[in-house]
Amino acid sequence: MDTSSTDKVDQQLKELADKHGFLRPDRGDLDNPPAPWREGKPDYRKADLLYFKGKTMNHKPGSLELIVENLVKKWEMEGSHLPDYMTWTTINKEKYRVQANGQKVFSGKESSTIGYYNWLLSTASKELYDSEQHTFESSHSVFPGAFPDGFAWEVLQVFSGPPKVAFSWRHWSNFSGEYKGRVGEGQLVEMHGFAIATVDEQLLIGQLEVYYKPDEFLKAMEGKIPISDVSSGKEILGTGCPIHREK
């Protein structure tokens, strides 16, 4: 973003935070990373603005929901921008493993090497996304072009506390870019799912199991099913009078 765009985003973030009591996601101190960045310091301002504008929940400070949400957001940041998983601060390095939809279990080394797109989409139909044909780098070039404003994520509900944290989640953006030659018109695109994070006393992730239906999202992106089939969230800011759904 250029300076004028950055200033505009910063202003919008401040206005929404002041007016509605929204909290910016806590991904740690990005100015002091535990290791060198993969490709420079990440900038989450546009993603945070999308999160503010589109989220359906507004969890209270200190709530388990907000703690889990920030933990996952920081974990995602580290997985995307710190190449060596042994430098991540969100995981139990000796135990860390991940799994999508009850299928293959990926070790910490393998999952960090291929990237979270590839292990999360490893159960998708190969004609829609073949994770075996993608590297970390190529997988991270597939979706940003479709979602130039980022892809926001929120915790919906937490069903159990540590050590086995079970929670539902929502992932969304506006399809305003291009995906496989198909140009979006700003339509809302969503994914919903469930996850179980096994954590230790320091809330470090030892195992993460994620459950969702990747094919529905991918079919909608390709125009094989209506995008409205994967759009059901009701944003807090969708009406003139925001209703804060707090947990």
UniProtKB/TrEMBL annotation:
InterPro entries: NTF2-like_dom_sf, Pathogen-related_defense. It comes from Patiria miniata. Residues 17-39 are annotated as: Disordered. This is Pathogen-related protein. Signal peptide: none annotated. Residues 17-30 have a biased composition (Basic and acidic residues). It comes from the Eukaryota.
